[in-house]
Amino acid sequence: MMTSRFSGYGTKKELIIDRNRRSGRAGSRSSRQRHKTRVELAISLVLIVIALLAIFFLNRPMTASASQEKTYQECYRSIEINPGDTLYKLADQYKKDPSVSRRQYVNKIIETNHLTSQNIYSGMSLVVPVYAEVQ
């Protein structure tokens, strides 16, 4: 009968398990595996911190500071229409508040002067909103 080098043990795996048990390493991972796990954890933490910083900085409002913001007060001015004037040309000339669109400004002129259309004629007098900068 042939004897195995692993006599007394059922398999090679049982021999390795028994050797690990005697050396105090039963079920433990190698130092290389522990180092790899630590490196992966450190990389994960760095990526999480970068993601949180990106979220923080991207969610900040992109508005100018209060000292740089301009505020406007609406006033009115009477003007006489010249040949070739249109409501949109008037908007380009008198609208200074960037928070008011051209279309909103034209609608404001129409409402203020009770116009039924956008047609204006040379010699007409219109009241237009003028925005004065408040400091």
UniProtKB/TrEMBL annotation:
A Pfam family the protein falls into: LysM
Keywords: Membrane, Transmembrane, Transmembrane helix
SMART domains reported in the protein's UniProt record: LysM
UniProt superkingdom: Bacteria
Keyword Oxidoreductase: no
Domain LysM: 77-128
Bilayer-spanning residue ranges: 39-58
Cited InterPro entries: LysM, LysM_dom_sf
PROSITE patterns from the UniProt entry: LYSM
Name by which UniProt lists this protein: LysM domain protein
Lineage start: Bacteria, Bacillati, Bacillota, Clostridia, Lachnospirales
